[in-house]
Amino acid sequence: MNTGLQLEFYKYQGTGNDFVMVDNRALSFPKENTELVAFLCDRRFGIGADGLILLENDNVSDFKMVYYNSDGNPSTMCGNGGRCIVAFARDLGIIQGETKFNAVDGLHHATLVKDVVSLQMIDVTLVEQRDKYFFVNTGSPHHVQLVKDLPKLKVKEEGAKLRYGIYGEKGSNINFVEAVDAETYAVRTYERGVEDETLSCGTGVTAVALSMYAAKKTDVKRIQIKAMGGDLEVSFEPQEDGSFTKVRLKGSAKQVFSGVIKC
Fold first, then answer.
1. 154: exposed, middle or buried (C-beta count within 10 Å: 0-12, 13-18, 19+)?
2. Which residue, among 107, 112, 106, has the nearest Cα to 90 in the 3D structure?
3. Which CATH number fits domain 6-118+253-262: 3.40.50.10490, 3.10.310.10, 3.60.21.10, 3.20.20.70?
4. Active site residue 263
5. One of 41, 84, 201, 263 is an active-site residue; which one?
6. Model's pTM, two decimal places?
7. What is the DSSP letter of 150?
8. Does residue 41 carry a catalytic annotation?
9. 152: which DSSP letter?
10. pLDDT tens sequence for the chain (263 residues)
11. Which one-letter DSSP state was computed for residue 151?
């Protein structure tokens, strides 16, 4: 890249899902430059991340979250990114222990204690139960499929087949799930836009928890999720019509490092 830009950035991770964070309250970041975003997320030539997040001012909340996948394109809601931007806003002095912020899927409330962020996700109206899998939109589209011997699964290969084979170019995220016990599930996720397995996906583990409850695989309303990058908790209130309210995603979110990069 040779844009002449010197960019101050911060690197955050939420259970191994990592993001380049930029304070864009001055609106100085060239938001339409997809090549720049992809460069910054590149693990060999740039900073390296699963996505890039801009923090901006907002008229109706504490701040606005603008999210890009690592391919440089704007994307739908990212749950772990949402938790990370809450920690970022706290570290910038914008908020303290509680916040409301705007994202592509609407307003989100969150609380944080030290490195643990509890993020309210959108209400979910429907979990679609299909022949061998589930489909649910938790701010991003998610395919949820139970498997056996999850540790040995070739997630990138099998995920790509489903991502394109069922959902076409627009795609869906693909989650493979195996029960640990009635309250705990192990999850591995293939993310569209990254086009690879990521260590954790916040909207994905949320989709898994709701799908397992809807399918009567569990009757608990606070489900523990073991992602490749760490442990998360999803809680919710099921409704008689099959919808879910008060959906929350809880887990750690930490700053890894900060710096300046020449672009």
1. exposed
2. 112
3. 3.10.310.10
4. no
5. 201
6. 0.96
7. G
8. no
9. G
10. 788 889 999 999 999 999 999 999 999 999 999 999 999 999 999 999 999 999 999 999 999 999 999 999 999 999 999 999 999 999 999 999 999 999 999 999 999 999 999 999 999 999 999 989 999 999 999 999 999 999 999 999 999 999 999 999 899 999 999 999 989 999 999 999 999 999 999 999 999 999 999 999 999 999 999 999 999 999 999 999 999 999 999 999 999 999 999 99
11. G
Could you tell me if 89 and 95 are in contact, meaning their C-beta atoms sit under 8 angstroms apart?
yes
Residues for the chain: how many in total?
A: 263
Contact 102, 58 (CB under 8 A): yes
212: left (phi over 0), alpha (psi -120 to 50) or beta: alpha
Pick the CATH number of 128-251 from 3.60.70.12, 3.30.70.1230, 3.30.930.10, 3.10.310.10: 3.10.310.10
Given the structure tokens 């022949």, which residue do they identify? Answer: 131
